[in-house]
Amino acid sequence: MGKIIEAKIGDAVKILSLQKLAYRSEAELYGDFNIEPLKQTVSDVEKAFEDYLIIKYIEDGELVGSVRAYQEDETCYIGRLMVHPDFQNKGIGKALMNEIERQFNVKRFELFTGSKSEKNISFYEKLGYAGYKTEKLEREETIFIFMEKLAKAGTTAS
Question: Which tens digits make up the pLDDT trace of 43-96?
Fold first, then answer.
């Protein structure tokens, strides 16, 4: 069984490496290898530590999953959920999502994924998220579905 801990800036190289592996299937799905997660650099990931809480999933000493989030007003914005392709479908993504949600005492959670990414959409729906809009972002051609989940009343970050 792996463990989830807060990532540190020194993890940026490993997180970027994992990101490039994990987002390859998205790039293939859309036929676009110019997507943001594949274009990022180590310094982009290091910079993310200024604004995001980044957590990682460690299995046998290896970083095999990560997710990041930040809070603005009463909303927690979650991004870059990634799990190493060899470790997918083992509950790691769900564990990371549950942990990142636990870290924020907010009224709602928001994230987005590619509108053609049926596996991702289904995964988030199982976690209680529902799509509420689709939108194309300036940085790439993909049409994204934005999903939200209202926090359960009475839950607070530990």
Answer: 999 999 999 999 999 999 999 999 999 999 999 999 999 999 999 999 999 999
| Burial of 59: CB neighbours in 10 Å, binned 0-12, 13-18, 19+ | middle
Expressed in angstroms, the distance from the first to the final Cα of the chain is: 22
**Rounded-to-integer distance, Cα 93 and Cα 65, Å:** 7
Q: Which residues pair with 58 in a beta bridge?
A: 3, 63
Q: pTM (2 decimals)?
A: 0.93
Distances (CA, A) of 148 to 5, 84, 86, 111, 129: 24, 25, 28, 7, 5
